[in-house]
């Protein structure tokens, strides 16, 4: 009774530890959205544009500057007039104070200020779209790496199953050799095959460890050193080509970015065109001046001067010729606009072709998966029959080895089909823009 209780407690502890270490694909995707360096870098870039947009209303506000100066003079002077009248002053001191508050408010510049404000908002939207695009791309990489680990785990289980068969072959070959019904070459070949599977298992564990490190790197090393992933690869077999292609221009994040870049280029063109318009500013200032002289330095020198007052008015600046800079900027903006339109068309072409390629791979993987799911059952049954026949002396070791190799090949094709179907499914959802919500 005590042994039974201890065994139950031990098994529960193992299950709890395994559960605590296992991470789901949803968890690692969520971690990547928070920790992935590529996402965080794109967020900081977008934050700059968002910050510009936050204070973009400042283009409509006036500029207000205050200037002031205080100067203390101490001079020795000697003045001689044409009538030979000489005036000598030593230590003539004076104090000069100046102050000014100046306001300049641009009331018209050919809509440049409105274009500038619109440009800030559009660049902020581009930044946000780039962040989402990076999030989807990073999530796709994380999912592919995660299920790459699952694939290698399944491959390891298949190798372990093959190892068990090879161990049984070795035992049977040893018994046959002992009773004189078998030959030593059979035993040696069985041991060679067993060692090959043991070596493959070690190499497979190394591959799994490397993939886990790659996954952890995508998550900025947020996972513990030892963790486990799920054992299965769930696949959505109901995706249709029409579903992915529907409204994809407005759901694919790369297309959204390309479309917003066109808007930015159009606004930039309007901004440069507005540079040909006159600029009207409302100007106003308050001025204060005070001068104090302690000694008479000349017959007309004043002891005390103070001026203060304000002024206001309008100033107009009309561009006439500036080295063709405005024309050059407008033409460059037109070229850039045309380039952004071509980029959009190119991205759309790449997107549509990518969807077709991904869906063909997805559809073929589904068909192969259905075949290999059936084929693995046949291969297992064939190995069991061959192994049982080998026990009874009906099947030769060559026939058993051939059946075992067929099972290994069937496992490889089945696991590859599962992984390829999942990768194609992920790629379709990435291209559609619905990989993350």
How would you describe the overall organization of this protein?
There is one protein chain. With 437 residues, this protein is of the alpha+beta class. The protein has a domain at 28-59 and 121-275 and 342-432: Outer membrane efflux proteins (OEP). It has 10 helices and 4 strands; from the N terminus they run αααββαααααββαα. The chain has helices spanning 2-21, 25-35, 37-54, 112-179, 184-218, 241-245, 248-251, 253-273, 325-392, 397-432, and strands spanning 63-80, 86-108, 279-293, 304-317. The protein has a 4-stranded antiparallel sheet with strand order 1-2-3-4, with no helix packed on it. The protein is elongated, with a radius of gyration of 41 Å.
List keywords for this structure.
437 residues; alpha+beta; Outer membrane efflux proteins (OEP); 4-stranded antiparallel sheet; 4 strands
What is the overall silhouette? elongated
**End-to-end gap:** 52 Å
Question: Helical amount among residues, as a percent range?
Answer: 55-70%
In the CATH hierarchy, the third-tier topology of one domain is known as Outer membrane efflux proteins (OEP)
> How many beta-strand runs?
4
CATH architecture of one domain: Up-down Bundle
CATH superfamily of one domain: Outer membrane efflux proteins (OEP)
In the sheet with the most strands, the strands line up as 1-2-3-4
Mean pLDDT: 88
Summing up helix and strand content along with how strands pair, one would put the structural category as: alpha+beta
- What fraction strand? 15-25%
> Helical segment tally?
10
Tell me the major beta sheet.
Answer: 4 strands, antiparallel
CATH C-level of one domain: Mainly Alpha
**Low-confidence blocks of residues:** 1-20
């Amino acid at each position: 009774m005590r042994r039974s209780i201890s065994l139950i407690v031990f098994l529960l502890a193992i299950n709890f530890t395994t559960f605590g270490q296992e991470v789901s694909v949803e968890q690692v995707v969520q971690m990547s959205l928070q920790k992935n360096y590529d996402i965080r870098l794109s967020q900081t870039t977008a934050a700059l544009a968002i910050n510009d947009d936050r204070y973009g209303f400042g283009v409509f506000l006036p500029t207000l500057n205050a200037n002031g100066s205080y100067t203390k003079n101490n001079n020795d002077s000697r003045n001689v007039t044409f009538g030979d009248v000489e005036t000598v002053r030593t230590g003539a001191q004076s104090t000069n104070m100046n102050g000014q508050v100046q306001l300049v408010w641009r009331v018209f510049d050919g809509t440049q200020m409105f274009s500038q404000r619109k440009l800030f908002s559009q660049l902020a939207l581009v930044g946000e779209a780039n962040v989402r695009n990076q999030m989807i791309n990073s999530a796709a990489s994380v999912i592919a790496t995660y299920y790459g680990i699952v694939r290698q785990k399944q491959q390891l289980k298949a190798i372990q199953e093959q190892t068990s068969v090879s161990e049984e072959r070795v035992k049977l070959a040893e018994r046959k050799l002992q009773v004189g019904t078998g030959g030593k070459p059979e035993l040696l070949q069985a041991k060679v095959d067993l060692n090959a599977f043991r070596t493959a298992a070690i190499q497979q564990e190394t591959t799994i460890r490397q993939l886990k490190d790659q996954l952890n790197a995508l998550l900025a090393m947020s996972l513990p050193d030892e963790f486990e992933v799920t054992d299965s690869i769930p696949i959505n077999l109901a995706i249709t080509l029409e579903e992915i292609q529907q409204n994809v221009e407005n759901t694919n994040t790369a297309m959204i970015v390309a479309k917003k870049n066109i808007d930015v280029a159009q606004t930039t063109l309007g901004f440069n065109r507005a540079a040909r318009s006159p600029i009207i500013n409302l100007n106003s200032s308050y001025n204060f001046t005070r001068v104090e002289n302690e000694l008479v330095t000349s017959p007309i020198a004043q002891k005390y001067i103070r001026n203060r007052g304000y002024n206001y008015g309008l100033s107009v600046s009309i561009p006439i010729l500036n080295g063709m800079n405005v024309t050059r900027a407008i033409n460059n903006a037109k070229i850039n606009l045309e380039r952004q339109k071509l980029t959009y068309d190119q991205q759309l072409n790449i997107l549509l072709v990518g969807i077709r390629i991904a869906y063909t791979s997805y559809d073929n993987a589904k068909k192969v998966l259905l075949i290999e799911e059936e084929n693995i059952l046949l291969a297992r049954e064939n190995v069991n029959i061959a192994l049982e026949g080998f026990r009874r002396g009906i099947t030769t070791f060559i026939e058993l080895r051939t059946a075992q190799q067929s099972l290994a090949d069937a496992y490889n094709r089945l696991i590859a089909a599962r992984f390829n179907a999942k990768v194609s499914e992920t790629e379709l959802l990435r291209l559609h823009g619905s990989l993350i919500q």
